[in-house]
Design a protein that fits this description.
Layout (H helix, E strand, L loop, with lengths): L6 H16 L11 H12 L7 H18 L6 H7 L16 H15 L2
């Protein structure tokens, strides 16, 4: 069963399309079809990634901003993916040191943080 697009994703795409509409680019869909246009973008883009609100909501907004800067004509959903910024790299933890001394050092550090 196909997972339905989440509301944050729908909102991000609808918001971006509304901004694109305000530019009145060549090829802008007629106002009577804009709801269908937004639904189509959502249905086309949702399965292309494992979208995550925390990681992707601002990336989608930035991609729409890039489209507004770069496009002279109404873009296709594919163009949004082409300008979608990379996800920020997650912090990488260093592996813990081995041995009793490392464990004691970690306990000491934890006590300093907790104020014990």
């Amino acid at each position: 069963m196909k997972k339905q697009p989440e509301s944050w994703f729908r909102n991000a795409i609808v918001s971006g399309i509304q901004q694109l509409l305000s530019l009145s680019l060549d090829g802008t869909p007629p106002s009577k079809t804009i709801t269908l246009t937004a639904s189509t973008w959502i249905e086309v883009l949702w399965p292309t990634r494992r979208w995550d609100a925390e990681l992707d909501e601002t990336r989608i907004a930035e991609a729409f901003r890039q489209l507004m800067i770069r496009c002279d004509r109404w873009p296709a959903p594919r163009q949004l993916l082409l300008v979608l910024p990379s996800r920020p790299e997650r912090l990488k933890l260093t592996p813990p040191a081995k041995g009793r001394d490392a464990a004691m050092q970690a306990i000491k550090h934890a006590k300093e943080i907790l104020g014990s």
